[in-house]
Amino acid sequence: MTSSERIPVAILGATGAVGQTFIRLLDGHPWFYVAEVAASERSAGKSYAEATRWIEGNMPADVAALTVKACDSAQVTSPVVFSALDAAAAGDLEPAFAKAGRVVLSNAKNFRMAADVPLVIPEVNASHLGLITAQRAARGWSGAIVTNANCAATVAALAMAPLHEKFGLKQVIVATMQAISGAGYPGVPSLDILGNVIPYIGGEEEQKIEREMQKMLGKLSGSKIDDAPFVVSAHANRVAVENGHTVCLSMTFNTKPTVDAAISAIREWRGDASVRGLPSAPDLPLRYRDEQDRPQPRRDVNDGRGMTVSVGRVREDPIMQLRMVAMGHNTIRGAAGGSILNAEVLVKTGVISR
Ligand code: NAP
Fold it and tell me: What is the dihedral sign for C-alpha 36, 38, 43, 44?
């Protein structure tokens, strides 16, 4: 695709933490360019530079000059819509865009568990994008909604995918240490988080982690997903880390793997072949680290340009069978980067036309 053939995209919620990550990741993207930015009425009508408190690096000059629009499908006309909307706004706005024929790639929780909406990490379950046909038939729209998961659930599901494929997960206990950027911008007040751990994350964080992984690790059967039959117990904690959610996992399986077999499964896993070589796909979706004190957000969060999830410390568990630690970038792999990779798969399969 030459630069003049790139596909125009809109970003809803463009001023927030995930919206800004979309803009950074799409700067120079070979297939997409940011044609429109939209946010709440508070920001609409201002230039993007004026409306946004930019968090990291330099704001791309072409986006800085765009006027922020209201999230109205009559005003925002790009065929591909990346949504970084707050859940309170996504419920009404995202379907309006799908009804108007746009392909919406959503980061919000609202439609993730709907039976006809794909919830996708493409290396894990690209085949679930086949639900789009059923969604269009059921809802009578020519667009589509495709979602990516809660950011902690994404890290855990990617790390467990090779183990589930080979050994069949039965039970999972997960304790998370989630970065402050996961709370959006400006997020958690500094006096609440500095030198502290907050053992609660609002917005049903634990429930999202407990229900989304079974859908992602489930199987497409005709026009529905059969959830993977394992149970999850989650403890979600907010910690004073800028970027990168760490998850500690204890697991039981239908067939108990040895530690070496589990490590080999993680090392050898490359995920769905259709994803390889796409512009946002990392060389390794999972990297197993042998060091006894890794993964760490400070050292590993930008592996694979933020798209590689790092795994370490696979060992026996005296109560469950195995335990391990995984860590991944919450606003990249867990949000904007994941959505962009989903859109790249949809371009490759012709659902989004060039
Ligand atoms: P954020 O920083 O609070 O940004 C929210 C965005 O939504 C802003 O652009 C805001 O615009 C816009 N918005 C709020 N109310 C609106 C309305 N009524 N109409 C139109 N736009 C509205 O939040 P975030 O962290 O980027 O998260 C965005 C979404 O991604 C959420 O659904 C979140 O759960 C999900 N998510 C976040 C992460 C993460 O790591 N942060 C990971 C996965 C998923 P204004 O600036 O004009 O108010």
Answer: positive
Taking residue 158's Cβ as centre, other Cβ atoms within 10 Å add up to 28
- Residue 330, ligand 1, Cβ within 6 A: yes
User: What is the third-level CATH fold of 151-329?
Assistant: Dihydrodipicolinate Reductase; domain 2 (3.30.360)
CATH 3.30.360.10 in the chain: give the residue spans. 151-329
CB 71 less than 6 A from any atom of ligand 1: yes
Q: Where along the chain do the CATH 3.40.50.720 domains lie?
A: 3-150+336-348
Task: Supply the CATH classification number for the domain 3-150+336-348.
Answer: 3.40.50.720
What's the confidence (pLDDT) of residue 354? 81
DSSP 8-state assignment for residue 332: I
Q: Which atom of ligand 1 is nearest to the CA of 330?
A: 40
Closest atom of ligand 1 relative to the 90 alpha carbon: 32
Mutate to test the pocket of ligand 1, among 40, 42, 71, 151 (most ligand atoms within 8 A of CB): 40
The per-residue pLDDT of the chain, averaged, comes to: 97
The set of catalytic residues is: 151, 245
Query: Cis ω on the peptide bond leading into residue 295 (within 30° of 0)?
Result: yes
In tens, the pLDDT along 4-47 reads: 689 999 999 999 999 999 999 999 999 999 999 999 999 999 99
